[in-house]
Amino acid sequence: MAKKLFFVMMIAALSTGGVFAEEAPPVEASRAKNTAAVTVGLIGVEASYERSLTRNFSVLADVSYSNVFFVGDSYTAAIRGRWYPWGKTFFLDLGLGYGNTVGLLGSTAEFVLLILTLGLVRPDAINDALRVQGLLVAPSMGWKIDVGKPGGFVIPVVLGLDVVVGGRTDVVPYARVGVGFSF
Hints:
With 183 residues, this protein is an alpha+beta fold. The chain has a single domain (32-182), classed as Porin (Beta Barrel). The chain is 20% helix and 52% strand. It has helices at 2-16, 104-116, 123-130; strands spanning 34-41, 44-52, 57-68, 72-83, 90-101, 132-146, 152-165, 169-182. The protein has an eight-stranded antiparallel beta barrel. α2 runs antiparallel to α3 (123-130). The model has no long low-confidence stretch (mean pLDDT 82).
């Protein structure tokens, strides 16, 4: 009897093969590695490329143009480090780069001068005198929302500041919503 039981167990073990638990895909595979995006706001536009390094960290390169109430403007190019605290959609980032701007401080001064001089002073002369160019420090926060499953279209929503430090400091706030593609 013991020989028959042993023989049946051996045949069953050999015929069924191995039984293994199903493995989940790695966490890194649940998110696309690359994202190219164009975001547009009421006062600006930005083009960016993002490369995910880990689930929580990525690196971006971006160029942007912002217009402050049609009086001042800002051109920037930056490299950003982005942190996803929960590894999902919400992020905080900090960018360093080059900025050329007539931001809030310069725009306000330009607007007041235009009103006080009744428009007699040439706006370009004021704009050139108030322009700041130099180191860009750009903190921001936002959400990168996947449309459908991970990989494919995304909707980036970004709120931030462009702070340009040159001979003096000027600030350009922005809020942008756009469309991007993750791959």
